[in-house]
């Protein structure tokens, strides 16, 4: 292992020096290299490894809690060994392993072979090999020949994670959906091939990268498979700006300026970590291959709120029951990685205003560090009025705007895009926002059905079907509201019974709280205004004596439609309830289980909850599910307008009054707005400044103001 | 009537000249004066009238449809008489009347006395008289004396619409809730009196403006009424910026500039109307005392969408079952008027960016026009990314931002504020947004209960209870999707049954549409993904043959909790269903009925629906209800952070592809964003411009781009 030893000494400063990083900082490039070399060192030198994940092995929470307590109190910091988590294959085999490397000690601590039916995520190199295998296959070429495509037509292969149906699917496989590009425009590499789906689909096996089967696709309203027929020309459907007949000419620039700079500070912590401070908030930003952004140690005005926040999982099952579409059920985080797929964000394109970018580092299949430049953008945005009141007796208005801090990543998962953002505001609220955009996953449909359709999809272009599908997300909240002994409760509002003494007019209603005693899945109920809250009953509001709490506002959604006996249901262990609550255990991070690719279930949050642990006043984790049943509109093609989902965490009796009261008033001297025309009734471009600088100040005629 | 005739000729140009206005333009000040004079002219000159409403009597829809067709086709315009609707009292009596004045003919067309149990809205002058009556009443003074308040303490009276309980409430009454201002700061007129509620409440009758009863308030956990006890000092709870211990000093300015001006055009139509054109949208903005903003003739790319859009009603019933709180059930639009209560918006305070303001005119109690300056602001805002796709094979990203046009009003209803906005985007979507803010309506609670509480409210300050309450809004949508024969349908997604041939793996699901045949109330069902759509089946999508439609995205909410036998339930005729659909009839504009003040029910949308009309392919109206059950947090006091609700109307198979495809790409040359620090990895301040000006263009190494 001379070579490995050499890499080791040249690429990393020293094993000991890695200790200086904060224990929650992501691995550095050097640490990734060191880790890969240490793992390689346990194998003979002729064994080639395909690395899937090389990432920080987060310290056990117990250790970290002590560390953070020491850190915040200024006490000496405990020593926590720096460790890396690794998953890898022996290249070109199905031998899949998991290892933990102790970087502080410079040794591999554990290294075990996994399986059967445990598969690692796809990686970029593998996807390219699968594409190549599909495109070069003789059977595929023979099938293409039967379509009699115009000469020069470009063919595209979209590898899909195979999914699970229990039918000969123990091997690691990819289902490849085939498309062509517009034959009339073969030189345009960015022509939208999803407008030209082809009616067959090779299956590629991933040890030898060979096509093992060619599936022919049903293109009618039932299971019938047609013989391959010559292609009938259809028009293209392009999203590129230069392909549009014309672009709008009447949109004027709108610019966001922060002439005095940003209000946040972003302090690097080691090579890869960052501490963000903004408007009384503080937290650490981590990043990994799977979840992308992870926030740790989230505090408001130094008060502890959340130990860890991240998007834990997502599942996208499709509605078409027919082979092979019945297996389409993507887990974009576990199958591919939100971190790995993050876009390189461009100033002025993806982000408007005064922006700071973060760069992360993950591994490639060879165990080499890959920098992900600009994978997170950090900026402030104006979110409209924060609060306002006008005293109608004096006419004096008090108003503040709601400034938000946004940390945003955009991920591309083959055809589709998700814009993922954590937002913080000045009223102590955290918002997680998902914008779904990108291109629908399409399949061919017979032209006879273009204007008739099928009930499990929408025709979005002649000969093109976009099947209905669900997007179900799981946001993982590891709370520490004023400490680590928290509980989950829910409030419900109920009408009081009619009672001639107490409720004679039938108008009364009350709100009652229910404590969730045991781990499990729970659901929203709008008819009862059921509202979930994370609470610390040991800490009481000084004014009204209520336990400090944060409530969860999440939009209701249709839970997973697949049958409880289906693999879809078994695998998507979070998709059947709005809320799960479990006791905290290290490594229980992913709602659908650690390895989602061709998974079989039994390793996700439904399984964690099955321990039936008491979840009252202990270290709990709350999993919030949300999503959409995407019934495509033709307006969602060729690229869909963003569909926006938000989950909010809001303080309830956590503060003793509106925490945004001390936001400076919204004033013209600060905002410098402008009048669009002279069709106005403002006395001057500068509004009148009232007493104490309040420009929305006293009316000119107190007592005569407008009601 | 010499005096009236004189006013008439001096203040209005001429009756005939009023004809030149567009039939949907609000009344001008001159028309209001003319109308009031004409109504006065039918009474002896010694009869004094109290005007409640003088507003445009909108032409019958049938006439208007012909007019709009002519207008859009350039045909000669039909003559439509200009009319005014008036409601008024014989001053200081309960004699309440409704009149229609034909301004084109210069005559009163109808004039009828209403009642019994029909009451007009409050007006500003009346509210002041009620306050005065309460404050000057000897019984009130005697009660105050028993509280032994510090010398110089200022007392405040908050008149509340009386509500209905059927107990001696035929008269026109106000229930007045009493407060004091901070005795330690008597000179501060804007001190928050809601932190100092007093334990009694006079009832004022409105013919003579006399206190007819003094209600003592229950302040414990039950119905018990204490003897008045001397006041125990409590601290104040102020929202004024200068009253805060300190304001945040680390918030940097964020400015929105439109150096080339706004993208919209706002064309005055007559003195009071406006036509807005923006990004293929066009519509007329009207304004009235009750609804505030009303949008008419909303079109996209000339295609008709909505004949009329407005907030129709809102109801705020409270949870406390005890007398007199059981009657608290505000109808802010019908009882007071969203138009009448609109704030005078200030540049740089209420609106950020490049703003245009509209001024409206309503009547006062004397029939004189009152200009409402800056009651609507119009501006554009950036709403993040509109759509994005990155081709992972080439690395080329296509991305546009989502620009929105906003029309916003802010209303103050005594203690409370609503920020009401219509928003339009470039993807053919209309959004109606409500932000609830302002101050909770408070009542006294015994200090013994401060840390114990009651189940129908939250203690928000020592001795101060904020009762739970519901906010239930009704948005009225009068559609004209490609014509006036529309229908309401809903889609539901259902799992396919397990079937060994057709759905062997249990994953399939289908979407089925149900046509709503008859007028009535309907509900959301998240478990079925029930989605309501307004459809025109006579016009089909050219690609997929589906009827053109707009779907309604509205958040679910807990319906009215009050018992079906209660007055709350009888009056709030919209509050029991997410959706109502009715056939269109002129004057059926308000979901809770035309006169909500002390109403008895039977005049709102539930009653319109009871006709059981066929609503299939005819002129329909769709009423969308949404709201919140506001269980106060202490964070909602002394002024609450905005709670945001949105209803979206989105095209479904109305266009033949994403209508925002022709939005120019998001580019740095246009957006001119800036980097927050040099901690970045952008090659330069200007991003690289790719082919055809796409700055998010090709990756440097095609084929090697990030997944």
Layout: helices, strands, pairs:
The structure is a homodimer of 707-residue chains.
Chain A: H1 2-11, H2 29-40, E1 49-56, H3 61-73, E2 83-90, E3 96-102, E4 107-114, H4 124-136, H5 138-147, E5 155-161, E6 173-180, E7 200-205, E8 210-216, E9 255-257, E10 265-269, E11 273-278, E12 281-288, E13 292-300, E14 303-317, E15 329-330, H6 332-336, E16 354-363, E17 369-390, E18 397-413, E19 416-425, E20 430-438, E21 442-444, E22 457-461, E23 464-467, E24 469-479, E25 487-495, E26 509-515, E27 520-522, E28 531-540, E29 547-553, H7 567-571, E30 579-583, H8 605-609, E31 620-630, E32 640-652, H9 668-671, E33 674-675
Antiparallel strand pairs in A: 1-2, 2-3, 3-4, 5-6, 6-7, 7-8, 10-11, 11-12, 12-13, 13-14, 14-15, 14-24, 16-17, 17-18, 18-19, 19-20, 20-32, 21-23, 22-23, 24-31, 25-26, 25-28, 27-30, 28-29, 29-32, 30-31
Helix pairs in contact in A: 1-2
Question: What is the CATH topology descriptor of the largest domain in chain A?
Answer: Beta-galactosidase, Chain A, domain 5
Number of domains of chain A: 4
CATH superfamily of the largest domain in chain A: Copper amine oxidase, catalytic domain
Q: Give the overall form of chain A.
A: globular
Main sheet record of chain A: 10 strands, antiparallel
């Amino acid at each position: 292992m001379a070579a490995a030893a050499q890499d080791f000494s040249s690429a990393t400063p020293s094993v000991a020096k890695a200790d200086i990083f904060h224990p929650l900082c992501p691995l550095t490039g050097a640490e990734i290299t060191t880790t890969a070399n240490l793992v390689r060192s346990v194998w003979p030198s002729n064994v080639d490894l395909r690395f899937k994940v090389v990432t920080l092995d987060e310290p056990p929470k117990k250790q970290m809690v002590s560390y953070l307590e020491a850190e915040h109190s200024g006490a000496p910091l405990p020593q926590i060994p720096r460790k890396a988590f690794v998953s890898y294959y022996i290249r070109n085999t199905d031998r899949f392993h998991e290892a933990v490397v102790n970087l502080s000690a410079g040794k591999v601590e554990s290294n075990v072979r996994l399986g059967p039916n445990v598969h690692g995520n796809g990686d970029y190199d593998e996807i390219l090999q699968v594409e190549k295998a599909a495109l070069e296959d003789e059977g595929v070429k023979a099938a293409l020949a039967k379509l009699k495509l115009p000469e020069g037509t470009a063919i595209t292969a979209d590898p899909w994670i195979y999914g699970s149906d229990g039918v000969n699917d123990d091997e690691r496989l990819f289902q490849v959906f085939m498309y062509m590009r517009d034959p009339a425009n073969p030189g345009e590499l960015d022509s939208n091939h999803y407008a030209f789906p082809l009616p067959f689909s090779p299956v590629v096996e991933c040890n030898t990268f060979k096509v093992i089967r060619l599936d022919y696709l049903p293109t009618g309203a039932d299971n019938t498979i047609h013989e391959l027929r010559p292609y009938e020309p259809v028009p293209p459907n392009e999203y590129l700006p230069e392909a549009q007949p014309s672009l709008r000419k009447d949109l004027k620039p709108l610019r966001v300026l922060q002439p005095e700079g940003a209000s946040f500070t972003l302090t690097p912590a080691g090579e890869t970590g960052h501490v963000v401070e903004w408007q009384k908030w503080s937290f650490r930003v981590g990043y990994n291959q799977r979840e992308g952004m992870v926030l740790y140690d989230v505090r408001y005005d130094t008060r502890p709120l959340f130990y860890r926040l991240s998007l834990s999982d997502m599942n996208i099952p499709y509605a078409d029951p027919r082979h092979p579409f019945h297996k389409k059920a993507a887990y974009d985080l576990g199958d591919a990685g939100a971190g790995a797929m993050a876009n390189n964000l461009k100033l002025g394109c993806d982000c408007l205003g005064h922006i700071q970018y973060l760069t992360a580092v993950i591994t490639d299949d060879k165990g080499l560090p890959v920098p992900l430049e600009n994978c997170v953008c950090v900026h402030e945005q104006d979110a409209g009025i924060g609060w306002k009141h006008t005293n109608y007796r004096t006419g004096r208005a008090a108003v503040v705007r709601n400034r938000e801090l946004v940390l945003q990543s955009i991920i591309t998962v083959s055809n589709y895009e998700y814009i993922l953002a954590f937002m913080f505001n000045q009223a102590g609220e955290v918002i997680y926002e998902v914008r779904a955009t990108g291109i629908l996953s399409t399949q061919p449909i017979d032209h006879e059905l273009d204007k008739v359709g099928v009930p499990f999809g929408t025709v979005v272009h002649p000969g093109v079907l976009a099947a209905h599908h669900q997007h179900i997300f799981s946001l993982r909240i590891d709370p520490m509201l004023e400490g680590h002994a928290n509980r989950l409760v829910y409030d419900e509002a109920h009408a009081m019974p009619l009672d001639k003494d107490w409720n004679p007019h039938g108008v009364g209603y009350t709100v009652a709280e229910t404590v969730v005693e045991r781990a499990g899945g729970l659901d929203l109920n709008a008819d009862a205004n059921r509202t979930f809250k994370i609470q610390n009953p040991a800490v009481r509001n000084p004014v009204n004596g209520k336990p400090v709490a944060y409530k969860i506002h999440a939009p209701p959604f249709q839970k997973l439609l697949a049958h409880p006996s289906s693999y879809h249901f078994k695998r998507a262990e979070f998709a059947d309830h709005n809320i799960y609550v479990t006791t905290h255990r290290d490594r229980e991070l992913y709602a659908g289980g650690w390895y989602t690719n061709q998974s079989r279930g039994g390793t996700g949050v439904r399984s964690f909850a099955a321990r039936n642990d008491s979840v009252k006043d202990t270290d709990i984790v709350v999993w919030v599910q949300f999503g959409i049943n995407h019934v495509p509109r033709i307006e969602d093609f060729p690229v869909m307008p963003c569909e926006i989902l938000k989950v909010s965490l809001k303080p309830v009796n956590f503060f003793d009054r509106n925490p945004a009261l001390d936001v400076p008033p919204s004033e013209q001297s600060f905002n410098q707005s402008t009048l669009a025309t002279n069709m106005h009734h403002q006395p001057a471009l500068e509004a009148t400044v009232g007493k104490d600088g309040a420009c929305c100040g006293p009316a000119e005629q107190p007592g005569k103001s407008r009601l």
